[in-house]
Write a structure and sequence with these properties.
With about 325 residues, chain A is an all-alpha fold. In chain A, about 55% of the residues lie in helices and about 0% in strands. Among the domains of chain A are: about 100 residues, no CATH class; about 130 residues, no CATH class. Among the domains of chain B are: about 150 residues, NADH-ubiquinone oxidoreductase 51kDa subunit (Rossmann fold, 3-Layer(aba) Sandwich); about 70 residues, no CATH class. In chain B, β10, α5 and β11 form a beta-alpha-beta unit. Chain B has a 6-stranded mixed beta sheet. Chain B has a 4-stranded antiparallel beta sheet with strand order 2-8-7-4, with no helix packed on it. Classes of the chains: A mainly alpha (about 325), B alpha/beta (about 425).
Chain lengths: ~325, ~425
C-alpha cells in the first residue's frame, strides 16, 4: 500500500479549465488583430507591440522578485495575464507614438494598477485601460496631430484623412466620408494598431465565445446600445448607427477590455446593467468630448462595478419574495 | 406509463469523468474474518451497544439500539463472537465506537418474524426496526422521513446517480428491477401516497426501459447534469415545486428516497432481513479491477481493495463519489451503511494544483445549483466575517462541489463554505 495519500476536501476531480488556459485563450484571440495590425502598419507596429508585451512581463517579474519570490516560483504560477495587458496596450496605440511610450504604459499598468493592488484578480480597474489612458495623457506632446496612414489603402482607392481614429463626429451629426466596408476591414483607415480591422477582432471574439471564455451577448449589448444611443443623440438619424459602432476602438474595447473578468459584475443582471450603461455612457462621452472615449467609459464603469455587485445578488434557489428568510435577504 | 421529460433547470453543469464499472455485474465480496461495525452510521445520536464482549451473535442480531427518534438500529453482519467494543479512529479521522465481531463462517442468520399485516404503520415500524437510513449518502433515518407531520402526495425515487464513477445504483436498477419496484410500492404504502415518480438520468437507458414497463410509475428521464440527484433539484425537475431556502422536501409534500433505501426496505418487509449489507462501486483508474461489490457492513476497506486486485499508483482514496465523497487519511476504514463508493484515484485524475487568486470570473456563481455566490462567501469565510457570509446565502449550500470543480483558480470553495456553515451554526447555538 502507498505510504502517502493525498487528503483534501471534496470535490476530488476538477475541471481542466485553469486561469492560465483562459488567459492563453485571450492571447490567441488577440492574435488575428495583432497580425493584421502589423501587416497594415509595418514593422514599427511590431516593435511597439513587442516592447509593450516584454515590458509588461518583465514588470511583473521584477515586482514579484522584489517581493521576495523565487524565479522558479513566479514562472510556475505565471498566468499570462500580463501578456494580455501588454498586447492590449500595444494594440491601442498608433504608430505615431514614440517607442518608449508602450514601455512606460505597460510598466504603469502592471506595477501601479495590477501588482500594487495584489496581482491578478485584485485590480479595481482594467490595467490595460489604465495604461492606455496613462500613455494618452503623458505622450500627447510627442504624438502631435499626425497620424500615419496604413500601408494598405482603401479598397476604393482613396485615402482617408479624418480625425484620429475615424470617430464619427456625432456632434455635427455628419457621417464621415468613409465606406462602411473600409471601416469593417480597416483598409485605408487611420487609427491604433489593433483596432482598425474589425473583422479580425470579431474573429477573436467568436473564438472566445466558442471557448466559453466570454459570453458574446454582453459585448453585443455594449456595441448595440452605443449605436442606438448615438442615433438618439443625433436626432434619430439612423444612418449614424453603423458608422458609430464601426469607428474607433469600440469593438476592441467591447470584446477584449470591457469583458475582463475582474472588472465586471458577477451576476447576469449586473452584467446587463454594466454593459448597457457602458454603451450609453460611451455615446454621451463621444458627443460631449468629440474624442474617442472607449477607454474612459470603461474606466469609469469599472469603478461602478463594486457598487453594482453590492446591490445585485443572486437569489437562492426556491427563494420567494414574500418569504422573509434571513439568508436570502440582500 | 410513458417516459416523461423533466422540467428545464438552467443551473448545474456537465462534469467530466467516466463510469468505469458500468458493465460489471454486482459480485459478492467474500466475508472478512473480522468486521468492525460502527455504531454511528447515520445522522443523529449514535446507537447504544446492547451486546458485550464474548457474546455470541448471528447474522442479523441486534448489536446496538437506536437512542432516540433520529437514530437507527445496528445489526451484526456476520455470525460469530463479539471480540471488542472500542473507539477506533476511522479513515476520516473521526473517533467512533466500533463493535468488532470475529466471523465463525457458520452463516447462521436471524430474521424478524413474518407477519401478514401491511398497514402503513407496521411497514414504517419494520423499516425503523431494520435500521434503514437514507443510503444515498446522508444517512437520515428513513423511518423518520416516512412519518411526516402533514400528509404528502408524491414519492420521488432518486435514480439519478449523477456522480461520475459510481454505478452501483445503475446495476441494482437493472439487476433487481422487480425487487426495487416492490420496495417502492411498500414505501408508497407506508407514506400513503398514490403518485410515484422515478427520476433516472438519460445515460442509463437500460434502467429507464426497465422501469418504463411498470404502468404505475412515472418515469422521468433526467438530463445528464450534475447535481440532478440533489433532493431539491430532483423535486423541481420532476414536479416543478421549489423547496424554499431552509425548508425540507416534506414542506412541498414530497418525499425523496434513494434506490438502495427502497431495496433495503423491500428486504426488511418481505423477508424480515435487517440492513447488514451494502452495494459499493470500487472504481477509479488507481484500482486494477473496478467492480460493483455486494459487501457486508463492517468489512475493512483494505479487504475490498484486495478483492478488486489491489491498487496501482493511487494517490487518493475516497469514500463515496468524486464530487461529494470524503478523502481517507488511511485505509483503517470500514464499510458503513451509507457508503456507495470506494475510489482509488491516480494523479492524473485528481487535481493537485495549488489555489491561486480568484479572478472573479463568476463561474462558481453561474454554475451553482443553489444560485448562491461562492466567491463572496469564501472571501467572507476566510476573513472571519461569518455574519456577512450568511447574508450571502451560505446556509443554502448543498456542498455539491460544482463551484470548486469549475473554479479555474482551483480554490477550495466547498471547504470554505462548509467551514462558514459550521461557524454560523455555532453562532446560532451559542445565542
Amino acid at each position: 500500500m502507498e505510504n502517502k495519500l493525498i487528503y483534501s476536501s471534496s470535490p476530488h476531480i476538477k475541471s481542466p479549465r485553469t486561469t492560465r488556459k483562459i488567459m492563453l485563450d485571450v492571447c490567441v484571440a488577440l492574435l488575428p488583430a495583432t497580425i493584421i495590425g502589423i501587416i497594415y502598419f509595418g514593422l514599427y507596429a511590431l516593435l511597439l507591440v513587442a516592447l509593450s508585451v516584454i515590458s509588461a512581463v518583465v514588470g511583473e517579474y521584477v515586482y514579484l522578485l522584489a517581493a521576495g519570490k523565487s524565479f522558479k516560483e513566479i514562472t510556475e504560477n505565471f498566468d499570462f495575464s500580463s501578456v494580455i495587458t501588454g498586447l492590449l496596450i500595444g494594440l491601442t496605440i498608433g504608430t505615431n507614438y514614440p517607442f518608449y511610450a508602450p514601455i512606460f504604459g505597460s510598466l504603469f499598468a502592471i506595477i501601479a494598477v495590477k501588482m500594487l493592488f495584489g496581482g491578478t484578480g485584485k485590480n479595481i480597474v482594467n490595467p490595460a485601460i489604465a495604461g492606455r489612458i496613462f500613455m494618452f495623457i503623458s505622450f500627447q506632446w510627442a504624438v502631435g496631430a499626425v497620424w500615419l496612414v496604413p500601408s494598405i489603402g482603401s479598397i476604393y482607392g482613396e485615402t482617408v484623412a479624418t480625425s484620429a481614429t475615424a470617430v464619427v463626429d456625432v456632434s455635427k451629426g455628419v457621417v464621415p466620408n468613409i465606406s462602411l466596408l473600409d471601416m469593417l476591414l480597416g483598409t485605408g483607415m487611420q487609427g491604433c494598431i489593433g483596432e482598425t480591422c474589425k473583422v479580425a477582432l470579431l474573429i477573436g471574439g467568436i473564438y472566445l465565445a466558442c471557448r466559453r471564455v466570454i459570453n458574446l451577448v454582453y459585448p453585443l449589448i455594449f456595441i448595440a446600445l452605443t449605436g442606438f444611443a448615438t442615433v438618439v443623440i443625433c436626432g434619430f438619424d439612423f444612418s449614424m448607427f453603423l458608422p458609430s459602432i464601426l469607428s474607433g476602438g469600440l469593438i476592441l474595447g467591447a470584446i477584449f477590455m470591457a469583458t475582463d473578468y475582474t472588472t465586471t459584475p458577477n451576476t447576469k443582471a449586473g452584467n446587463i446593467i454594466y454593459f448597457a450603461f457602458l454603451g450609453i455612457l460611451l455615446a454621451v462621452l463621444r458627443y460631449a468630448t468629440k474624442m474617442e472615449t472607449v477607454s474612459f467609459a470603461i474606466l469609469l464603469m469599472n469603478l461602478v462595478v463594486p457598487l453594482i455587485d453590492k446591490f445585485i445578488l443572486n437569489k437562492p434557489f426556491g427563494y420567494k419574495k414574500s418569504q422573509k428568510t434571513k439568508g436570502a435577504k440582500l | 406509463m410513458s417516459i416523461r421529460k423533466p422540467r428545464h433547470f438552467p443551473f448545474g453543469s456537465k462534469i467530466h469523468g467516466t463510469k468505469l464499472s458500468n458493465k460489471c455485474p454486482i459480485v459478492k465480496a467474500p466475508a472478512p474474518e473480522r468486521v468492525y461495525i460502527s455504531v454511528s452510521q447515520h445522522i443523529g445520536a449514535p446507537a447504544i451497544p446492547v451486546v458485550s464482549i464474548g457474546d455470541k451473535v448471528k447474522k442479523g442480531t441486534l448489536i446496538a439500539e437506536a437512542s432516540g427518534a433520529i437514530s437507527a438500529n445496528v445489526y451484526s453482519s456476520v455470525s460469530g463472537t463479539v471480540s471488542d467494543i472500542c473507539d477506533i479512529v476511522n479513515g476520516l479521522n473521526q473517533k467512533q465506537k466500533h463493535i468488532v465481531i470475529d466471523n465463525d463462517f457458520t452463516d447462521e442468520e436471524e430474521t424478524f418474524s413474518n407477519f401478514n399485516d401491511f398497514e402503513p404503520e407496521t411497514l414504517v415500524n419494520r423499516i425503523r426496526l431494520a435500521g434503514i437510513v437514507g443510503l444515498g449518502g446522508a444517512g437520515f433515518p428513513t423511518a423518520a422521513k416516512l412519518t411526516p407531520k402533514n400528509p404528502l402526495d408524491t414519492l420521488i425515487i432518486n435514480g439519478a446517480e449523477c456522480e461520475p464513477y459510481l454505478t452501483c445504483d445503475y446495476r441494482l436498477m437493472i439487476e433487481k428491477t422487480e425487487e426495487i419496484y416492490k420496495g417502492i410500492k411498500y414505501v408508497a404504502r407506508a407514506l400513503n401516497v398514490k403518485k410515484i415518480i422515478i427520476g433516472i438520468e438519460r445515460n442509463k437507458p437500460r434502467a429507464i426501459e426497465a422501469f418504463a414497463t411498470y404502468s404505475d410509475l412515472d418515469v422521468v428521464s433526467l438530463k445528464k447534469q450534475y447535481p440532478m440527484g440533489s433532493e431539491k433539484h430532483l423535486i423541481y425537475v420532476t414536479t416543478g415545486r421549489k423547496v424554499p431556502p431552509g425548508k425540507m422536501p416534506f414542506d412541498v409534500k414530497c418525499c425523496v428516497q434513494n434506490i438502495k433505501t427502497v431495496l433495503a426496505a423491500y428486504y426488511a418487509i418481505e423477508y424480515g432481513k435487517p440492513l447488514t449489507e451494502s452495494v459499493l462501486t470500487v472504481s477509479g483508474h488507481g484500482i486494477k479491477e473496478p467492480k460493483n461489490v455486494q459487501v457486508l457492513i463492517g468489512t475493512p476497506f483494505s479487504e475490498l481493495i484486495k478483492f478488486c486486485g489491489g491498487t496501482e499508483d493511487a494517490v487518493k482514496i475516497v469514500a463515496g463519489g468524486p464530487m461529494m465523497g470524503k478523502a481517507l487519511v488511511n485505509l483503517n476504514h470500514y464499510v458503513r451503511k451509507t457508503d456507495s463508493g470506494l475510489l482509488c484515484l491516480k494523479n492524473t485524475e485528481t487535481s493537485t494544483q495549488s489555489p491561486s487568486n480568484c479572478i472573479n470570473c463568476g463561474l462558481c456563481a453561474r454554475k451553482c445549483p443553489m444560485r448562491i455566490m461562492p466567491m463572496y462567501i469564501e472571501s467572507f469565510a476566510l476573513s472571519g466575517n461569518f455574519k456577512e457570509a450568511e447574508r450571502y446565502g451560505a446556509m443554502n449550500c448543498i456542498e455539491c462541489g460544482l463551484c470548486a470543480y469549475n473554479c479555474p483558480a482551483k480554490r477550495a470553495l466547498v471547504q470554505s463554505i462548509s467551514f462558514a456553515k459550521s461557524k454560523i451554526k455555532e453562532m446560532k447555538n451559542g445565542k
